[in-house]
Amino acid sequence: MAIEIEIRKFKSMNLTGGTVLEAFPSVGLVSTIASSYLISTLELDQICALESEHFPPVSMVYSTKPKFPARIYAREDIKLAVFISEFPPHTMLHRPLAKRLLSWSMDQRCRRILSLEGLPKPGSDDVEPELKGVGSIDAAREELDKSGIEQMEIGMIPGVSGVLLNEGRWVGFNVIGLLADSIPGQPDALAAAKLVDGVNRLIPEVEIESEPLLKQVAEMEAYLNTLRKQAEPAMSEQVVQMFR
User: Fold this and answer.
1) Does residue 185 fall inside a structural domain?
2) Edge-to-edge strand order for the sheet containing 70-75?
């Protein structure tokens, strides 16, 4: 039986020719940290929620308002949308989520998807994290070259990001995976800042400073620890482990 991912629309926006950021949780929570920072800094509005019977039965409360655990934020004037979730989807959801995200992006006539991903950092944690990219098609790889982002020569990209790259290649859609070396098991703001830098390079008309993000490490860690404690009664051990 196929897994259904429902997208519930709160408001409409014209995103033709725009960019979609995919930011489901990854190593070091870098995608979640980077996307939360972008949403706040750019003052994006929530336009949709994602829902599935396989999602965690929780409500995220922000500024007194309940939120679905997976959401889409956007801003029409800069043609940018962000898929975000505080909880990592189960592996059985990776393919249906990626395909739903891709179909939604194509329906909105967006021109590309930037998938933010953290990869376990090789070597010492003191080593500066590297930023690399992978493009689904020639146009995506040309964009990486023009932006000065080094392309991954060999490796493996898991989860929603990996499926998006494969599906993007299959249908000829521009998908760019932005990858930052991250420290597993703890919020890695430095790696998240690398992803923000990559977004800046690929969307030069949207300038975002990454320095304030580095100052929010303690606040972000406390917030995620609170989420973990609140999630334990409702979530599976696999999900709770992400916050440890």
Assistant:
1) yes
2) 6-9, 45-51, 70-75, 80-85, 19-23, 112-120, 174-182, 131-135
Domain count, the chain: 1
DSSP tag of 203: S
Would residue 238 count as lying in a domain? no
- What does the alpha-carbon distance between residue 107 and residue 86 come to, in Å, rounded to a whole number? 25
Domain range for 153? 11-233
End-to-end Cα, the chain, rounded Å: 33
Q: Cβ(192)–Cβ(213) under 8 Å?
A: yes
Q: What is the pTM of this model?
A: 0.87
Q: 142: how many CB neighbours lie within 10 A of its CB?
A: 12
Amino acid at 184: P
Domain membership of residue 240 (yes or no) is no
pLDDT of residue 204: 87
Q: What is the reported pLDDT for 138?
A: 98
| Contact of 66 with 46, CB cutoff 8 Å | no
Gap between the Cα atoms of 140 and 138, Å rounded: 5
C-alpha 82/C-alpha 243 separation (Å) is 22
- CATH code for position 48: 3.40.50.10900
Across the 244 residues of the chain, what is the mean pLDDT of every consecutive 10-residue run?
91 97 84 90 95 90 88 97 90 95 98 94 72 97 97 93 97 97 80 91 85 70 62 52 39
Residue 142 lies in a domain: yes
